[in-house]
TrEMBL record:
<dbReference type="InterPro" id="IPR001851">
    <property type="entry name" value="ABC_transp_permease"/>
</dbReference>
<feature type="transmembrane region" description="Helical">
    <location>
        <begin position="23"/>
        <end position="43"/>
    </location>
</feature>
<dbReference type="GO" id="GO:0016887">
    <property type="term" value="F:ATP hydrolysis activity"/>
</dbReference>
<dbReference type="InterPro" id="IPR043428">
    <property type="entry name" value="LivM-like"/>
</dbReference>
<keyword id="KW-0547">Nucleotide-binding</keyword>
<feature type="transmembrane region" description="Helical">
    <location>
        <begin position="131"/>
        <end position="151"/>
    </location>
</feature>
<dbReference type="Pfam" id="PF00005">
    <property type="entry name" value="ABC_tran"/>
</dbReference>
<feature type="transmembrane region" description="Helical">
    <location>
        <begin position="263"/>
        <end position="288"/>
    </location>
</feature>
<dbReference type="GO" id="GO:0005886">
    <property type="term" value="C:plasma membrane"/>
</dbReference>
<keyword id="KW-0472">Membrane</keyword>
<feature type="transmembrane region" description="Helical">
    <location>
        <begin position="176"/>
        <end position="195"/>
    </location>
</feature>
<comment type="similarity">
    <text>Belongs to the ABC transporter superfamily.</text>
</comment>
<dbReference type="InterPro" id="IPR017871">
    <property type="entry name" value="ABC_transporter-like_CS"/>
</dbReference>
<keyword id="KW-0813">Transport</keyword>
<feature type="transmembrane region" description="Helical">
    <location>
        <begin position="102"/>
        <end position="124"/>
    </location>
</feature>
<keyword id="KW-0067">ATP-binding</keyword>
<feature type="transmembrane region" description="Helical">
    <location>
        <begin position="295"/>
        <end position="314"/>
    </location>
</feature>
């Protein structure tokens, strides 16, 4: 085995992180809290009143930015959660009073009610095979439904007039300003810590490539539902603050129009930056309060025109303009960082003499009247490298999809280690010990090489929501891939800057990092140089020959197949027409006939 001491010391400069830089956000947050605490002394009553509301709205902008800017879910529904929280607090304070016990109950209800609603909305939005567009449409409907429920609530909700005059926290105007300011600073700091953490990388990964997340054993839908639920609770907290600070709640607080305004504010500020949406929301809301009275229609026209101009000219919002002028904003995400590499203890090789690791019985797949696969029977044991060959249209990639996704509509039976995959989503099949590499390298373009590998280990090791791992422990085989391709020296490099061959190697390292029992590879050498193909071939022979991993390889290059395979299976027009040894299959008359061009599936 190669020496890993060099790997363990790779990129020390990228890994070093002075304590001062780690403390900087807390210092900035502390200074901001102090400045906002004394701000009412220098502001008039109107400014204090408006900015209190603006800071509460900025809390909502943070939730929209986390969903849209980081997780890629465009949502108009945060207003509904805000309104539910505000109404829950107002109704509790109206009918129960503002004694300390009931105030705590009102706070709990204001957070819990929208969180429950958020859980329901998340489940509806992100069920299996749903799309981001579907989630956005659901978020459009929810505020409309909530407002209609408010209207139909009669005297309990105040109907179209809302609720007013209920008891609130015993604070003066300046006290509510300071409370809103501290809540905003705390939320911003917590969001900043989270998006820079290892768990925060999962949000970006889901946004970039949710399919790859699923094939790394993560559940994108579960992440999205959990995020929707948690941020609905945060929106409810903002609603509680708003109800107390204003002593009035109205249906428009939960409406579609307000939800749209939040999206506009986040877009103008710069989504995916945290600080941009906060400053944008406060500035726009404060300007609106000052100008809407004098220029009610012109102000809306100016805001709409500005929104269109920014979307066209500055897709990254005003924060992008600031970044170009002064460099990265302090809350724009996570700086270049690379952990130290380490080798995991070797696992014992699977027993190749036992029952088949992969067993396929009578597998058939059709698209309407078109039959793509028909009556496929195949067994593969540990340590075998079985190449799946055949002309274009033979059904090879379709077969790989059926093996890795039990929700595919196919007939027959597929089992991994004796466990049926029927009805299992890709992440649950990964848990059975299956890793899949796609024909086109499937990685996370917005993340670094180290982040991609960290996510590959997430289903085994978990992800911290508070910080970054100092050490990244990988199986020796994954470290070998990194070393042979030079990726061990590129851990902090953004993946989008890698060459095609390096991305292919990174995806293979990610799959190997799962420590699978079975690897499915769809043309892993497509577009690679001869040297890169040799490297991939050597890695595959090590995985199967020395580590006992089973591999199914889809490949067109028969010379490459001949060098590394233990068996070859030939698919033609959706049927398995030949299964045998390398020399037997490659030299057969049937294979020459299939590849002569006279017969394609």
């Amino acid at each position: 085995m190669p020496d890993t001491s060099a790997l363990a010391t790779a990129a020390p400069a990228a890994r070093s992180s002075p304590r001062l830089s780690r403390a900087a956000p807390f210092v900035v947050a502390g200074l901001a809290a102090v400045a906002l605490w004394i701000a009412p002394l220098a502001l008039d009553t109107f400014a204090v009143n408006v900015l209190t509301r603006s800071m509460i709205y900025a809390m909502l902008a943070v939730t929209v930015d986390l969903l849209w800017g980081f997780a890629g879910v465009l949502t108009f529904g945060q207003a509904a959660f805000f309104g539910v929280g505000a109404y829950a607090a107002a109704m509790a304070l109206t009918y129960l009073g503002a004694d300390p016990v009931w105030m705590v109950a009102a706070l709990g209800l204001a957070v819990l009610a929208p969180a429950v609603l958020g859980l329901a909305v998340g489940w509806l939005s992100f069920y299996h095979r749903s799309t981001a567009l579907y989630a956005s449409v659901i978020s459009l409907v929810v505020p409309i439904v909530v407002v209609q429920l408010i209207y139909s609530g009669g005297e309990w909700t105040g109907s179209s007039s809302g609720l007013v005059g209920f008891d609130v926290l015993p604070l003066e105007l300046e006290g509510f300003f300071r409370l809103a300011a501290l809540a905003l600073v705390a939320l911003t700091l917590a969001a900043w810590i989270f998006v820079r953490s290892d768990a925060g990388r999962a949000l970006v990964a889901v946004r970039d490539n949710d399919a790859r997340c699923a094939y790394l054993g993560l559940s994108p839908k579960r992440i999205q539902i959990a995020l929707t639920t948690a941020l609905a609770g945060v929106a409810g907290l903002a609603g509680f603050l708003f109800a107390n600070a204003s002593s009035v709640v109205a249906p428009e607080n939960a409406g579609f129009l307000f939800g749209t305004e939040l999206v506009i504010w986040v877009a103008l500020g710069g989504r995916g930056t945290l600080l941009g949406p906060i400053l944008g929301t406060i500035a726009i809301d404060y300007l609106a309060a000052n100008l809407s009275g004098d220029l009610p229609f012109l102000w809306q026209l100016l805001l709409g025109a500005t929104f269109v101009a920014v979307i066209i000219l500055l897709p990254g919002g005003l924060a992008d303009l600031a970044r170009r002028a002064w460099g990265a904003t302090p809350f724009s995400g996570r700086a270049a960082f690379a952990p130290a590499l380490a080798a995991l203890p070797a696992r014992p090789a699977p027993d190749a003499s036992g029952a088949p690791l992969l067993k396929i019985e009578g597998l058939a797949k059709s698209y309407g009247a078109l039959t793509v696969l028909e009556n496929i029977d195949l067994e593969i044991r540990a340590g075998e490298l079985v190449s799946l060959v055949g002309p274009n249209g033979a059904g090879k990639t379709t077969l790989m999809r059926c093996l890795s996704d039990g929700t595919e509509d196919f007939r027959g039976q597929v089992s991994i280690g004796g466990a049926s995959t029927a009805g299992l989503t890709p992440n649950r099949i990964v848990a059975l010990g299956v890793g899949r590499k796609f024909q086109v390298a499937s990685v996370f373009e917005s993340l670094s090489v180290a982040d991609c590998l960290l996510l590959a280990r997430a289903s085994n090791d978990g992800l911290s929501p508070f910080g970054r791992a100092e050490t990244l422990a990988l199986p020796q085989a994954a470290l070998d891939v990194m070393r042979m391709t030079g990726l061990d020296q590129m851990l902090a490099l953004p993946t989008r800057l890698l060459s095609h061959g390096q991305k292919q190697a990174l995806e293979l390292a990610m799959v190997v990092a799962l420590e699978p029992r079975l690897i499915l590879l769809d043309e892993p050498t497509a577009g690679l140089t001869k040297a890169e193909r040799s490297t991939i071939g050597a890695v595959l022979k090590t995985l199967t020959g020395e580590l006992g991993i089973a591999a199914v390889l889809v490949e067109h290059d028969l010379d490459f197949v001949r060098q590394i395979s233990s068996r070859i299976v030939v698919l033609h027009q959706g049927r398995l027409v030949l299964d045998g040894g390398v020399d037997e299959v490659v030299g057969s008359e049937l294979v020459r006939t299939i590849y002569s061009g006279g017969s394609h599936g």
